[in-house]
Write the C-alpha cells for this entry.
Amino acid sequence: MIPPVVPATFLSDHPEAVLADVRYTLADGPQPDAYANGHLPGAVFVDLNAALAAPATPDTGRHPLPEPTEFAEQMSALGIGDDSVVIAYDDGTGAWAGRLVWLLRMLGVDAALLDGGLAAWEGPLETGAPTRASATFTARPWDPAALATIDDAATAPVVVDARAAERYRGESEPIDPRAGHIPGAINIPFAGNLADGRFRTPDALRARFAEHGITDATGVVVYCGSGVTACHNLIALEYAGLGRAQLYPGSWSQWASTDRPAATGEEPGSKPSIDPSGRISG
C-alpha cells in the first residue's frame, strides 16, 4: 500500500488518483459550499455525515461506522472503486479527511492524507462540482481486528484519547453529554502530530508516542469525541511505523451517554473492570 501520508508532489506522479475533499466543521458539519467555491482540480466532495457515518444515536455515538453496503454505494457514486488510489484532504489538520483514509485502508484500498491539506496545493483551484463517472466498490465487512468495543475501551492495556487536553481534563465539553475521559485513558491530542501544518517526520512521531510508552500500536485503542479525529492518531501511528491500532468508533459520545464512570483532570484515573457477569465496575 501507499504510505498513509503523502506530499503534494505525489499528485503529479499519480494523475490517476481520486482526490477527495472532506471539509467539515464541528459547528456546522459538512462544507459543500466551501468545496464549490474552490477545491483541488477534479476533486470530489465527500459528505462525512452521509458517506462516512451512520445516523447518530445515543447508543452508538455521533458518528458510528456506516453500514458496509451504504459505504460501498457512496464510494461507487463518488467514482471510488476497488482499485482506486485515493488522496483525501480538508482545509485544516486532516482530522476530517483522516476518517475516509482510515476506513479505506482498513478495507485494503490505497488511500492517504495529503500532507498539509488544501494549503499544500500551489496551483489554481477549481470551482463548481465536476462530474466523475461512477465506479465499482465492492461491499465488504469492516475488519473486526481494527475495531474496539466499549468494553474493550474500558479494559484495554493502552487507551488513547485523541481530543484536546481541555476536553480530556473535563474543563470543556462543547457537544457531548458529559465532560471528562474514559478512566485509564492517556491523552495524546491529534493536533500534536503536526508541526507548522504538516505531519511530523516518522522519527519524530515515534518519539512522540514513545514519550507516552507506545512503541508498538498492537493492542492500542484510540478514541476521540465521535470516532473521527481519532483516525488522525491511527494514521500517525501507522506513518510512524508502529503498526495499526484499533478505533473505538462510539468514542466519548457513546461512553458519555451511559452511566459508566468518567475521569477528569490530568491523570488517567483508575481503569474500570468487568466482573464475571459482564458488568462494568470502578
